[in-house]
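Colleagues,

For the teaching module next term, I've prepared a clean inverse folding example: a structure given as C-alpha cells, and then the sequence designed for it. I'd like students to try predicting residues themselves before seeing the answer, so please don't circulate the second half yet.
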C-alpha cells in the first residue's frame, strides 16, 4: 500500500477523534481519579485491585496530572476499573493539509531563491506567475520529495 493510501486510511480513522477531541479534555484532577470517584471506588479499593499500596494510588493520580505517568500504568489502572485506556495522536487538521502547509513553507523558500536570481537577471514574475510556480513546486515537493519534507532547511 502506498503512503498516500495509508495516510487516507489513517485519516478516516482519526477524523472522528478530531471532532470530539475538545470534549475529551482531561479532567483537572485526571482521568484515573475522575473515573475512580464516578465508580464510587476508593483509593484503597483501586490499590487492592492493582496489587499496590494505597499511597501508590495518590502518587499515580498526581503523576497523571503532571504528565509523568506511563502508558502501561494508565492501561493497568483502566483495566483495574473495568475500563479501557485509549491512546492516540490526533492531528489538529487533516494530514493532507498539514503536508501541504509544510510544502508551502519549503516552496516559499525555494521561490525566494528563484525570485532573487530572476531579479539579478532583470526578470521578474508577476503575482499570477508566482502563484502558479508556487503551486507547481508544492505539488512536486509532495509528490517527489515527501521523505525530505520535514528536513530543516
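(Answer key — instructors only)
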Amino acid at each position: 500500500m502506498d503512503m498516500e493510501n495509508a495516510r487516507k486510511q489513517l485519516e478516516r480513522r482519526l477524523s472522528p477523534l478530531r471532532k470530539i477531541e475538545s470534549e475529551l479534555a482531561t479532567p483537572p484532577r485526571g482521568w484515573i481519579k475522575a473515573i475512580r470517584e464516578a465508580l464510587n471506588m476508593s483509593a484503597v479499593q483501586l490499590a487492592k485491585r492493582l496489587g499496590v499500596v494505597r499511597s501508590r494510588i495518590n502518587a499515580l493520580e498526581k503523576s497523571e496530572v503532571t504528565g509523568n505517568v506511563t502508558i502501561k500504568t494508565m492501561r493497568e489502572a483502566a483495566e483495574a476499573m473495568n475500563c479501557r485506556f485509549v491512546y492516540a495522536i490526533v492531528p489538529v487538521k487533516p494530514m493532507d493539509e498539514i503536508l501541504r502547509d509544510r510544502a508551502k513553507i519549503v516552496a516559499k523558500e525555494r521561490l525566494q531563491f528563484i525570485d532573487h536570481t530572476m531579479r539579478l537577471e532583470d526578470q521578474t514574475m508577476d503575482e499570477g506567475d508566482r502563484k502558479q510556480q508556487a503551486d507547481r513546486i508544492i505539488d512536486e515537493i509532495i509528490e517527489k520529495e515527501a521523505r525530505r519534507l520535514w528536513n530543516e532547511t
